């Protein structure tokens, strides 16, 4: 049974599944080179058609990630909408597009009127969007394939449960939390024996994700994209001074007293329409205190939500998905809750991973066996070297190619010598986080490497930390691992923050400088043998079994896909060293230091191991 899952909303993406096994997954942005694509992922679908032989005869089902297709808009249009929301309702009424103004004002109207407007709009939009989806599938040669739609939050929940469950027979609580989708912003499920039973649903308009996005816009950053920057800013503020700001946010949203598994706003306007209130309440508050207050409020509210559900149900195995669970500091708080036996979050759990839940739900609905569903990693995209011949022809005049006998060992030598190395190897990882195959790597024991990487390529905001990739077997040397996280393979996808140990000097450039936490990736031989071997070789050379790992991309652009993308970034940045599979690539005239391809002897660097 071959199933194609499609997310046509934020972070458009596709997932191809055969009999419960994920064969391929890619985000549309990696193919179009336009960051954060919203809409139907036509290039990603066509990639499945071309490279996996998918056609209308062998494809059993197409699964869509929402009951209704989200509004088609660009990222810039989304930001302009947030700007409009910052105006008063009276200003909106004087806009030329009165119908559109009333629709936006719906967030300020009483519930019955608001729901009536939204339902009529959704009905009209649903017919048009179903027709558009059919046309898009036909253009890809997939006309006539049965199409099913699944609820946005059921997809989030299914991705977490089917992908991460501890086992099938024990009950799990599954939490979903985001800005909103299909008229909900949070669900709580009881999952057992392969079935998900909805316990509670919070309707849109009571959304913690909306509040976080609105504050992101308030602080001059891009909502639905830069929330992680607000989270990264928060630890720099004095925690005590952040308490009053957290109390302000707590006056906006809380758990519903009538049903603590739901959220309920305590302000009259919907959370998507609260920018004017934020502008009033925080107009003379320091930016870092706003961020710190928001983060503290978020952690407190979400951890109370989860703890209350565990206490009321007695179920101690917990899973999460949805954009708010991309907040690794909130995940850290949840993981430390007393009485939790097991906690994990589906990797890159924003809307890009909705199709995982959709294809697994379809698999089960069509009679597929639960035992066939087996998820281990996100290395599910195209191979790095598929366009190597094209890259060699296109860039022969400007770069030099040197074949390596042992690329992992040679890369480790270069890193041990102090070089920064961009790595494009094997299958591309899916999602928001680079996991070693499309990464920029460096020795994290050198604090100055942060400024160097930012100057050469990343141009990250000065307060943002980098992250460490740690040899899985050595993770306990560098971070304190909560007992509730999966063992032994905790955090292979950078979904958890941890406190660092006394050996934090070994990874000082990949630790948050304000609170000494790290968004750690543990690297295991079973999941990524080549990256594991690279860190292992670096550890033998230096005594440090950890690397700085950041995504391989130019600022404002998606992570690179293949060799051509990687060389293009090399040429447009200050990077000097690139490894694509077995090839070391440098700009012509950049010098010969470190270029020798022989990996038979590790002659470049010999530091005594520390243990």
Gap between N and C termini, in Å?
A: 51 Å
CATH top level of the domain at 382-587 is Alpha Beta
In percent terms, what proportion of residues is strand?
A: 15-25%
- Overall body shape: globular
Residue share in helices? 25-40%
Neighbour order of strands in the largest sheet: 14-24-23-15-17-22-18-21
Biggest β-sheet strands, sense, barrel: 8 strands, mixed
Average pLDDT, to the nearest integer?
Answer: 90
Structural class: alpha/beta
Quick one: how many beta strands?
A: 24
> At the fourth CATH level, what is the homologous superfamily of the domain at 382-587?
Carbamoyltransferase, C-terminal domain
Number of helices: 20
Computed CA radius of gyration, to the nearest angstrom: 24 Å
User: What do we call the CATH topology of the domain at 382-587?
Assistant: DHBP synthase
The CATH architecture term of the domain at 382-587 is Alpha-Beta Complex
Q: State the low-pLDDT regions, or none.
A: 88-128, 592-611
Key structural traits:
single chain, 611 residues, alpha/beta, Nucleotidyltransferase, domain 5, DHBP synthase, eight-stranded mixed β-sheet, five-stranded mixed β-sheet, 24 strands, 36% helix, 20% strand
